[in-house]
Amino acid sequence: MSSGNSAIIIRVRGLTTQFGRNVIHDGLDLDVERGEVLGVVGGSGTGKSVLMRTIIGLNSPKSGDIEIFGQNTSGLKKSQRESIDIRSGVLFQDGALFSSMTVAENIMAPMREHTNLPLKLLLEIVALKVSMVGLARDACGKFPSELSGGMRKRAGLARALALDPEILFLDEPTAGLDPISAAEFDSLIGSLQQTLDLTVMMVTHDLDSLLAICDRIAVLVDRRIIIGTVDALMRDPHPWIQDYFHGPRARAAMEG
Fold first, then answer.
1. 143 C-beta neighbours (distance < 10 Å), count
2. What pLDDT does 255 receive?
3. Which residues contact 164 (CB under 8 A, 6 or more apart)?
4. What is the tens place of the pLDDT at every residue in 74-100?
5. Which entry of 66, 88, 101, 134 is 20 to 30 Å from 34 by CA?
């Protein structure tokens, strides 16, 4: 949960994203505070993952400004963008591991790209990261196809943490997991956030995750964002927000 430092680490202003004639976000504003866990939710087609991918530079917005660590990301040189990227880790759905690489090789990939560390030290760091995410040491030599869905997510998380990032982006981290595995993954994220003093931006549909580890929630509706705590959003009159936070699944999650 939040460390209490309210410095803005990600600032989005007037963001418009569009694919062809389809406008996904229209003048969207968002602040992510240092040390918080921010959940991003919304209905199908509202652009939750598009927003994350745009912030990390995989999509180009039609207009608007994105600042990360106080730097406007528009028009940066490659080296300047890389200096931001190495301070951020990303976990995509299902881990997005390289299928031809072992877990160890996957985790080493960003370190090989951005550092000149000797192999012995790389292997020591890999062992540390694997332990941090709750994988057994023998997972290092396995290929993604030999892992369960939950193990692939943990391996992907270890890779996301390889360069000791300050910001962790998570795209549907508990999707496809059974309730027990999802709860364990939520607990892991919460523990790592506190231990490593991470700022976490998490795209999710999972109400249990929102209630377990998020400080604030950003709801994508009508191509913009409404943001607040669970308590504040439960009082928001917007129909989708009312349905989301007061429907049967919400009541079950809150009673649980």
1. 15
2. 56
3. 196
4. 888 888 889 999 999 999 987 789 999
5. 134
Closest CA to 32 of 227, 210, 211, 179: 227
Tell me, yes or no, whether 77 and 128 share the same domain: no
User: Residue 106: which domain range?
Assistant: 97-164
The residue among 48, 35, 51, 44 whose CA lies nearest residue 214 is 35
CATH number of the domain where residue 27 is located? 3.40.50.300
Same domain as 149, residue 32: no
Give the Cα separation of 191 and 197 in Å (integer). 10
Q: Is residue 19 part of a domain?
A: yes
Give the contacts of 66 (CB within 8 A, at least 6 positions apart). 10, 11, 12, 15, 54, 55, 72, 73, 74
| Beta bridge partner(s), residue 68 | 10, 71
- Each residue's pLDDT tens digit, 131-168: 999 999 999 999 999 999 999 999 999 999 999 999 99
Residue spans of alpha helices (H) in the chain: 48-55, 78-85, 103-114, 119-132, 149-160, 179-196, 207-213, 230-234, 239-246, 248-255
